Amino acid sequence: MSVYEFSAKTIQGEDVSLEKYQGKVLLIVNTASKCGFTPQYKELQAVYEQYKEQGLDILGFPCNQFGGQEPGNEGDIEQFCELNYGVTFPMFAKVDVKGNNAHPLFTYLSEKAPGLLGSKAIKWNFTKFLVTKEGDVVKRYAPQTSPADIKKDIEELLTK
């Protein structure tokens, strides 16, 4: 099994199979517009611009499960990301990332890359998952991990 077996709605409402990203290194992030980590959008965009030509895609999944920090609708979120952070990487419709209504992709990511002390639950916004070109989940990063601090791991996967 790989991330390519899942699909999700884009922020514009289009159903997309993640097979579309086959052969690319992926950084999948649950995001929020009103979180202390929201400025990471700027860092994520910088990493995306630095590596997209080499085969990196960043997939942003807004989530309102942590402190109600993503209250807007998809149009609000898209506008916020573009205007405030110049986000051009793919953004998806709001999802749950934990609990009974969690998007199956995030259930899979959590199983494949547990967090601290083996915890599978996603604890906060801006948890990041790194995925190989073959669709295998290799690492989870805590919300406080700066996207810039992931560059070395991204570079390793891009050169494989």
TrEMBL record:
It comes from Priestia koreensis. PROSITE patterns: GLUTATHIONE_PEROXID_1, GLUTATHIONE_PEROXID_2, GLUTATHIONE_PEROXID_3, THIOREDOXIN_2. One of its GO terms (molecular function) is peroxidase activity. SUPFAM superfamilies: Thioredoxin-like. One of its GO terms (biological process) is cellular response to oxidative stress. Keywords: Oxidoreductase, Peroxidase. Residues 1-159 form the Thioredoxin domain. Pfam families: GSHPx (PF00255). It comes from the Bacteria. Belongs to the glutathione peroxidase family. The active site is at C35. PANTHER family: GLUTATHIONE PEROXIDASE. This is Glutathione peroxidase.
